[in-house]
Amino acid sequence: MTNKPRVALIYDFDGTLSPCNMQEYDFLKDIGIKDKKDFWEEVDGLVKNHNASNILCYMKLMIDKSRAAGKSIRRNAFVEYGKSVELYNGVEEWFDVVEELARKYNVIVEHYINSSGLKEMIEGTRIASKFKQIYACSFLYNVDGVAEWPAVAVDFTTKTQFLFMINKGIQNISENYRVNEYKEESERPVPFKHMIYFGDGETDVPCMRMVKNYGGNSIAIYRPRNKAKKELAKKLIQENRVNFACEADYTKGKEIYNIVESILSQIKSNFDFNQLEKKNQGKLV
């Protein structure tokens, strides 16, 4: 049996690792939309007029607007747009910093994305290689690499499903049916109590609450100048849906870092205690 607990750090993307929605960087500018509100208001209009999913509507509008502007909707074009996505302070260095903590506390840390944003754009960011798996929306592409249809649409319900996939060690979305298969708790690679969930918005609330309820830790991230996000974080604390609420700064020595270090230390201590208890009980068998 390994003497190292496996810990999953699971992040939403937009508003959690990046200040804005990923479409609001070069993508909207490139298709001729100067005010981001115009795009999202049109998405809301589609949702209301057709009683539809807001995720599917934004994905459809991305394709429609790109075609109308004469822009490529090939997979590599969406990946290219991801290169312009900004990140919060400390995010680029965060993964090396966490690895230092993992060595210090003798734990195995894995990073995951759980986002309603576009996987292809996330793959174009500077941090894409740091994640064991990116669970996010994606398009279905034809043989020429052109987007034709949504392949995966991630809403708040789907996000909770991905937590169970991480818990049970299921990597491929196409195998999501395996979530319902029985698996002993001791055989699950990442117990919920070894999860740390980072989120900022309404689509993250079920995940943050679920991780907290199952013994893990949830951190509500907010941008100090965004009053609405700060109020949401405050509300989530008051309603006991998250463990912590932090300003979006991943720099070593800042609040997020200090909280994660404390959690990793606690996970290792609890793990060692449980191992000692099992060893002692085993002598009496």
Which keywords apply here?
seven-stranded mixed beta sheet, 285 residues, alpha/beta, 10 helices, 16% strand, globular, 7 strands
Summarize the structure.
This protein has 285 residues and is an alpha/beta fold. It has helices spanning 26-30, 36-50, 54-68, 75-81, 91-105, 119-123, 156-168, 205-213, 227-238, 255-282; strands at 6-11, 108-118, 133-141, 147-152, 195-199, 217-222, 244-247.
Count of beta strands:
7
Low-confidence stretches: none
Class by helix and strand content? Answer: alpha/beta
The proportion of residues in beta strands is: 15-25%
Distance between the terminal alpha carbons, to the nearest Å? 18 Å
CA radius of gyration: 20 Å
Reading side by side through the largest sheet, how are the strands ordered?
4-3-2-1-5-6-7
Outline type: globular
Number of helices: 10
Q: Report the average pLDDT across residues.
A: 94
Assembly status? single chain
Q: How much helical structure, as a percent, in the residues?
A: 40-55%
Q: Major sheet: size, sense and barrel closure?
A: 7 strands, mixed
Secondary-structure element order, N to C:
EHHHHHEHEEHEHEHEH
Can you walk me through this structure?
It is built from ten helices and seven strands. The protein is an alpha/beta fold. It has a seven-stranded mixed beta sheet with strand order 4-3-2-1-5-6-7, with helices on both faces. Helix 6 (119-123) links the parallel strand 2 and strand 3 (133-141). Helix 5 runs parallel beside helix 10.
Give the secondary structure arrangement, pairings included.
Layout: E1 6-11, H1 26-30, H2 36-50, H3 54-68, H4 75-81, H5 91-105, E2 108-118, H6 119-123, E3 133-141, E4 147-152, H7 156-168, E5 195-199, H8 205-213, E6 217-222, H9 227-238, E7 244-247, H10 255-282
Parallel strand pairs: 1-2, 1-5, 2-3, 5-6, 6-7
Antiparallel strand pairs: 3-4
